[in-house]
Automatic annotation (TrEMBL):
<dbReference type="InterPro" id="IPR018317">
    <property type="entry name" value="QueC"/>
</dbReference>
<feature type="binding site">
    <location>
        <position position="201"/>
    </location>
    <ligand>
        <name>Zn(2+)</name>
    </ligand>
</feature>
<keyword id="KW-0067">ATP-binding</keyword>
<keyword id="KW-0547">Nucleotide-binding</keyword>
<dbReference type="GO" id="GO:0005524">
    <property type="term" value="F:ATP binding"/>
</dbReference>
<keyword id="KW-0479">Metal-binding</keyword>
<keyword id="KW-0862">Zinc</keyword>
<dbReference type="Pfam" id="PF06508">
    <property type="entry name" value="QueC"/>
</dbReference>
<comment type="pathway">
    <text>Purine metabolism; 7-cyano-7-deazaguanine biosynthesis.</text>
</comment>
<feature type="binding site">
    <location>
        <position position="207"/>
    </location>
    <ligand>
        <name>Zn(2+)</name>
    </ligand>
</feature>
<dbReference type="InterPro" id="IPR014729">
    <property type="entry name" value="Rossmann-like_a/b/a_fold"/>
</dbReference>
<dbReference type="GO" id="GO:0016879">
    <property type="term" value="F:ligase activity, forming carbon-nitrogen bonds"/>
</dbReference>
<comment type="similarity">
    <text>Belongs to the QueC family.</text>
</comment>
<keyword id="KW-0436">Ligase</keyword>
<comment type="function">
    <text>Catalyzes the ATP-dependent conversion of 7-carboxy-7-deazaguanine (CDG) to 7-cyano-7-deazaguanine (preQ(0)).</text>
</comment>
<feature type="binding site">
    <location>
        <position position="204"/>
    </location>
    <ligand>
        <name>Zn(2+)</name>
    </ligand>
</feature>
<protein>
    <recommendedName>
        <fullName>7-cyano-7-deazaguanine synthase</fullName>
        <ecNumber>6.3.4.20</ecNumber>
    </recommendedName>
</protein>
């Protein structure tokens, strides 16, 4: 890449609020964006794709890549992809790995994103994982991203230099909502619910953390909910 070439970044764009905020952070830092969205058999995959596609249009992304990763559903082991498992109601104080955990999903997604980044001479790779994720999901821990950075360094060409960025890894969902609001993220075009494509249920883990974040910053979450419990203390 020559000095005159704009710097480029891949963003894993799930369609949710964390990845949308990460994309805005990358754009704010001056990166040309290459958005990667994956469908892996989750209950709300059509809605998530719609939101990720809208994000790419809003940010005038240089490229948008949609990949089907059906092997994650075939492997199973998650309530997001397995019809035999129910999506649990929110338990924000639980220290157990929730049933929504998709086994080793982030390693799968980051591997594809690294390929995409190297092929397009991108300098950075952004993922929106944060502290409330890694309290429940082992592949969202800071140690995982540190280890994956070493994998990227070891497994790409000698002249490839991709910086794995998890800018929110020590942040709460509230911190993300606050920063995204400052950046003007269109949260009405993001989706977090694990159960439904419209309206959001309001009672699964993803809805609960999202609603709590907006309630903490005093902003009404702009999407529609079947139930809108009060989660903020």
């Amino acid at each position: 890449m020559t000095e005159s070439t704009p710097k480029r970044a891949v963003v894993l764009a799930s369609g949710g609020m964390d990845s949308a905020t990460a994309a805005h952070v990358a754009a704010d830092e001056g990166y040309d964006l290459y958005l990667l969205h994956t469908s892996y058999g989750q209950e709300t995959e059509d809605k998530e794709y719609e939101c990720a596609r809208t994000l790419a249009d809003e940010l005038d992304a240089a490229d948008f890549l949609h990949v089907e990763t059906g092997h994650l559903a075939a492997i199973g082991g998650s309530s997001l992809t397995d019809d035999e498992m129910e999506v649990e109601d929110a338990d924000l104080d639980s220290e157990e790995v929730p049933t929504s955990y998709v086994p080793f999903r982030n390693a799968n997604l980051l591997a594809m994103a690294t390929s995409y980044a190297e092929a397009n001479e991108c300098e950075a790779l952004f993922i929106g994982a944060h502290s409330e994720d890694f309290s429940g999901y082992p592949d969202c821990r800071p140690a995982f991203f540190d280890a994956f950075q070493r994998v990227v360094d070891a497994g790409t060409k000698d002249d490839t230099d991709i910086d794995l960025r998890a800018p929110f890894v020590e942040w709460s969902k509230t911190d993300i909502a606050e920063r995204g609001t400052e950046l003007g993220v269109s949260y009405e075009h993001t989706w977090s619910c694990y159960r439904a494509e419209a309206p959001a249920c309001g009672t699964c883990d993803a809805c609960a953390f999202r609603l709590e974040a907006f309630q903490n910053i005093g902003v009404r979450d702009p999407i529609e909910y079947e139930e809108r419990p009060e989660y903020a203390e």
